[in-house]
């Protein structure tokens, strides 16, 4: 698990790190992203440290994560399969380079700057395919119909997606550990009201799984739906 930047709450960050590392997810090692969690996760996937970025935030693809998994934290009662997105397949399907895809995401609106009012998803794709970059789009855009935000910081947003602040993945050592059963019971049952029998049974299943001779695949625990390899987007 990757913990993001808790802005405005520095006093609780050490407490949260302790919970993640020692109690809540005592089966694995966590790390703190210096800025965007999705950017750090994307770097970890590219470095081969982990298989995929698990998040509901599609920005993980914009940061360059080769694989994105969504709905990992949804309850079984919702009956929703895990969605797997392959960045290469997304780019091939949309017939775009990664640089064009980043500009498209900025054009549609991102965390770092506003979008161009009146430009929706369909129009944004048309503009990107025709002009290939935000600079060319701005130069050729009908300003009577579409108003570009004043001092629009799209270049800064682009730089943040291409060169985000991250911790070097090679300096991060991920380790699987035996779950702290008593710590989990105290945290989840004593403080959060979870059923103790279910928590203990879950901890025992984790211990049993770790003691197995082979490592289970994700699709043995979840159902998956993947992005298609080739599909025209019009």
Automatic annotation (TrEMBL):
Q: Which UniProt keywords apply?
A: DNA damage, DNA repair, DNA replication, Endonuclease, Exonuclease, Hydrolase, Magnesium, Metal-binding, Mitochondrion, Nuclease, Nucleus, Phosphoprotein
Name the coenzymes or cofactors required: Mg(2+)
Q: What does the record list as GO biological process?
A: DNA repair; DNA replication
**SUPFAM superfamilies associated with the record:** 5' to 3' exonuclease, C-terminal subdomain, PIN domain-like
Instruction: Extract one GO cellular component term from the record.
Output: nucleus
Q: Which domain of life is it from?
A: Eukaryota
InterPro entries noted in UniProt: 5-3_exonuclease_C_sf, HhH2, PIN-like_dom_sf, XPG-I_dom, XPG/Rad2
Which GO MF term does the entry hold, naming one? Answer: DNA binding
Q: Where is the XPG-I domain?
A: 23-96
Family membership: Belongs to the XPG/RAD2 endonuclease family. FEN1 subfamily.
What's this protein's name?
Flap endonuclease 1
